[in-house]
Amino acid sequence: MKSLLLLTASGPLLILTSHESLHDQKLLEVLRHKGIRKFVAFEVPLSLAKARYGGHFQAVESNLQETDDLRILDFDGQRIFQLFRFDELGAPILKEPS
Questions:
Q1: For labelling alongside 90, which of 5, 47, 62, 83 has CA 20 to 30 A away?
Q2: Number of domains into which the chain is organized
Q3: Is the pTM of this model over 0.90?
Q4: pLDDT tens profile 16-46
């Protein structure tokens, strides 16, 4: 499982996904289906997301199965930016339609 912060045109999203990589074409297809075609992403250490979201993380995680694509952990940009510092995140990954 991965936790990813996506900076999209409509605002930040923090997601949990069962996909191994943000480069996984199935994951990118799911995001495109949701209207997310261009974004900057950062991997959020799973242990850090668990610590910051506590019970909410556990509730979202319990609904994520191996066959599921993703779950949204948070869509409140202000809260996401308050909970995580940039130096806690992985290197930025830039995605845009080809």
A1: 62
A2: 1
A3: no
A4: 998 888 888 999 999 999 999 999 999 999 9
